[in-house]
Amino acid sequence: MAALAGGIAALVLGIIGIIIWWGEFIDILLGGVPVILILGGALAAYLGFEEIKDKRTTESFDDTTEDKIQQEVKDLKAEIKGLKEEKKEPEKEEEGDNTKQE
Fold this sequence. Notes:
The chain is elongated. The chain has two helices and no strands. Helix content is 97%, strand content 0%. By secondary structure, the chain is mainly α. It has a domain at 27-83. The longest helix is centred in the middle third of the chain and has 80 residues, at 22-101.
């Protein structure tokens, strides 16, 4: 409830202040708007430059790594196939040992 009362009081005082000091308010706007435009423009230019750098990095990363990834996938598939074959061979030997014991 106190926040509501404080907010309403600040709103009323702000409106009264703008009405009384309208000329000073306009002077502040006239001085502040160019500064805000300069800072906003500099920020937009910086972000645009960073976006261009990121695109170049991403394009070069995609070109060089696709072949490496495909080769790595092939190598891993071959390794998995080899591991599966190694696993099957000891199982067959164990089955042969079990039949001899019986």
